[in-house]
Amino acid sequence: VYWSDWASYSLDSSNKRTGKQHHRVLRENGHHIMGVHVYHPVLRQRGIQNPCWDNPCDHICVLSGDSYMCLCRLGYKLAANKHSCAVTKDFSFVIVAEEDLLYKIDLNRVGAPVPVTLPVSNLGMISALAFDWSNQTLHYSDNRHSILSAINVNSFEQWTVHNHIGSVSGIDFNVTHQLLYWVDADK
């Protein structure tokens, strides 16, 4: 396996099965190596069919003999049609905000928790969070843009809930009545 190491400005490799036989392939003085592309003649053969190329799966497609099998990301389970993924209802997680980033930490994982960055953008400066478990929606306040917004944690669809709100210091969501409450520190 090959990777670019930004700490040492180098391109390194090691045996992908053992992690051993590490060696430095190339070193750039003060310049980050931004990407690696692997070329192998076998990858250029014409007429090879890969059932995953059509990507019939919601999340992950893996080869299985001369066919394929669908898998789901953590926190999801495979639906009866064996292609779609649905949220696992008993899945426990924590959402953590760090300025303009959101992390999801799986509490069902064995071993040390691993924060996974949620693939969302334009978050601004997050100051407070509230979760609506009934719709799998994370509500958050963005004090940089003075808005309240929401993100569906399954589809990662984002939308603005309320504009021109001032400086929010706390929010809460009433699941029963589907109401969002917030505290404006400016008022």
Automatic annotation (TrEMBL):
<feature type="domain" description="EGF-like">
    <location>
        <begin position="70"/>
        <end position="85"/>
    </location>
</feature>
<protein>
    <submittedName>
        <fullName>Vitellogenin receptor</fullName>
    </submittedName>
</protein>
<dbReference type="InterPro" id="IPR011042">
    <property type="entry name" value="6-blade_b-propeller_TolB-like"/>
</dbReference>
<dbReference type="GO" id="GO:0060070">
    <property type="term" value="P:canonical Wnt signaling pathway"/>
</dbReference>
<keyword id="KW-0675">Receptor</keyword>
<dbReference type="GO" id="GO:0005886">
    <property type="term" value="C:plasma membrane"/>
</dbReference>
<keyword id="KW-0245">EGF-like domain</keyword>
<dbReference type="GO" id="GO:0017147">
    <property type="term" value="F:Wnt-protein binding"/>
</dbReference>
<dbReference type="InterPro" id="IPR050778">
    <property type="entry name" value="Cueball_EGF_LRP_Nidogen"/>
</dbReference>
<dbReference type="InterPro" id="IPR000742">
    <property type="entry name" value="EGF"/>
</dbReference>
<dbReference type="GO" id="GO:0042813">
    <property type="term" value="F:Wnt receptor activity"/>
</dbReference>
